[in-house]
Specification:
By secondary structure, this protein is α/β, with parallel strands linked by helices. Helix content is 44%, strand content 18%. It has a seven-stranded parallel sheet, sandwiched between helices.
Length: 249
């Protein structure tokens, strides 16, 4: 068997399964790559469109047989439930569930420095649905496929102030509370639930909107988040649950 055949065979023999929301973001992609490197089969949950197609192409050269896509608009709860049903039918179990989705920009503009009274209603609803409601619904549906020593990881954010982007701030603080509560609820089942709370992170979007801070003096890199994530899904973290772990400069 040549090296290419060996790679394909190893991908097909993967025995761990993961699902990741926000999989097309820079942070999401780093988490997906981490899971793939750890021999998971990974379902990418993100809105249908060029970003999902591009992410799939970027990963497909090395991991073609180890990724699945579940196009989903997380702002629509019914789509979330449909995707959950599809995953339940396709995957025999879930070993890792990752909630990395969130909304802090729209139409090439950051949702920043906007008073609450000036937020558009649909943006407020979408922000909360994507950041909180989708995570709760997806978790609720997929818990039946999780077992002892599996892991749920949420991604929130470390803020100096809520002013100017209150809906996003609330969505991230809510996901932290959800993490703590869920950890208490599923602890006896042996499911670990933790949250990574990164500070400013040098993503392509961050470079675009805040170029003056997009450097290693002021912000962390997506790989820094992935390194912590890799630890939390590992056997080394089997006794860690219900934690909100900040990572920032």
């Amino acid at each position: 068997m040549n090296s290419a055949q060996t790679t394909v065979a190893s991908q097909q023999n993967r025995q761990k399964y993961a699902a990741v929301t926000g999989a097309t973001s820079d942070i999401g992609k780093e988490l997906v790559k981490t899971l793939l490197d750890q021999q998971y089969r990974v379902g990418l949950i993100a809105r249908k469109g060029p970003r999902l197609e591009r992410t799939t192409r970027e990963l497909s050269d090395e991991y073609a047989t180890a990724i699945d896509t579940f196009p989903t608009d997380l702002s629509h709860p019914n789509e979330v439930l449909t995707t959950a049903d599809t995953i339940l039918k396709r995957y025999p179990r879930i070993d890792a569930l990752v909630h990395a989705a969130g909304i802090y920009h729209y139409n090439d503009k950051p949702l920043y420095n906007i008073a609450l009274e000036d937020y558009k209603n649909n943006i407020t609803i979408d922000t909360l649905n994507v950041g909180v409601t989708a995570a709760i619904l997806l978790t609720k549906m997929l818990l039946s496929k999780m077992h002892t020593n599996t892991s749920i990881i949420t991604i929130s954010g470390t803020f100096s102030s809520a002013k100017g982007w209150l809906p996003y701030f609330v969505s991230k603080k809510a996901i932290e509370d959800f993490t703590i509560g869920l950890a208490q609820e599923v602890k006896e089942k042996g499911i670990r639930v933790n949250c990574i709370s990164p500070g400013d992170t040098i993503t392509q979007t961050y470079k675009k909107f805040f170029p003056e801070y997009a450097n290693e003096k002021h912000a962390i890199k997506p790989c820094d988040i992935a390194n912590l994530f890799n630890f939390l899904i590992s056997e080394k973290a089997k006794y860690i649950t219900g934690q909100i772990i900040e990572i920032q400069k």
